[in-house]
Amino acid sequence: MRSGCRLLIIGGSAGSLEVMLHTLPHIRTDIPFALLLVMHRSSEPDPLLQFILSSKTALIVKEAEEKEKIQPGVIYIAPADYHLLIEKDHTFSLDFSEKVNFSRPSIDVTFGVAAEAYGTELVGLLLSGGNSDGTEGLMLIKEAGGITAVQDPATATVPFMPQHAILKMQPDYILPSNEIASFINNLS
After folding, report:
1. SS3 category, 115
2. pTM score, two decimals?
């Protein structure tokens, strides 16, 4: 595996929260990159999500904020009802434009802008979910020289999202859910 990851973005929808709850306790606390979760969720703010995720790791877990500088060793959560953009100076921007793939935040949107900002230093991982969001963004990550991975559809609660990506492109890795933590730990 190539080294030099500065940002890992994990996108998912139905069934992806369970994967993250099982994965987070096994992620090293000294990861030298930022981790960003872009999950389809209710349009209402929900501080419970941050609390639940925080209870599974010693890493800092926080909701991404406008103009915030992305820091290594932090797990960021895309806020409800905003597209999360990443600027070339590696800060966040919140966008309230139309939904993409019926979603805001859209995984495709964040994957795409992150590919421009991080290029070869970006890793995109797509988990369980019920629509095609994430596939186009993974293709942009791959074009920019980043690493692409999907959850093995056989281990996904809702296999459509990772299966769609596999059908449309060739991800670098197809990971059973029980190997995702090891994949993340090996990025450094």
Report:
1. helix
2. 0.95
